[in-house]
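Lay summary. Proteins are chains of building blocks that fold into shapes, and those shapes determine what they do. In this project we predict the shape from the chain. Here is one chain we studied, written as its sequence of building blocks.
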Amino acid sequence: MLSELEKLKLGLDYDYTDPEISQIKENAMKQTDIYNNIPSENKEAQEKQIKKMFKKVGENIEIMRPFQCDNGKNITIGDNFVGNYNLVILDCDEVTIGNNVMIGPNTLITSVGHPLSPKDRREHKGLTKPIKIGNDVWLGGNVTILPGVNIGNNVVIGAGAVVTKDIPDNSLAVGVPAKVIRKIENDLED
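And here is the predicted shape, written in a compact code that computers can read:
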């Protein structure tokens, strides 16, 4: 029989109140508390703490505080990243973010959700799907990215959008739910 953590890692329904899973979340809260209390002028300590918390981190990373995550070890961030104030990444599953990404304030990236069934919700079931965000992406303020979403390269997501489905390369998407309203030229291509 699989443990709840093994179920989570396999993408199966799992009990989010399981002690082993709760311990991971508790550790993430402790680590983000440490990060959020590092003086803003101590960039070296901030970088060291982010590298301790995350799975993989590129160069030139800035995450403004406060910041919260569910695990930390499921987050991969490329080079030249800016995460503005109140960024929340619920990384029960893998969250992969490319290079040259900017994220506006009050943004939620969540790889976890819950079932529609009230019985399953009463049984504390969680469901996860990985999230991937490409290179050269800008998420405006108050954006929400839901489980299983893939955002392509050279994408802008307008402020307040809720992204429920994949967004292709070179797109501007806005609204609730987010819809592509036009293509964006990629002026980096030769």
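What the prediction tells us: The chain has four helices and 20 strands.
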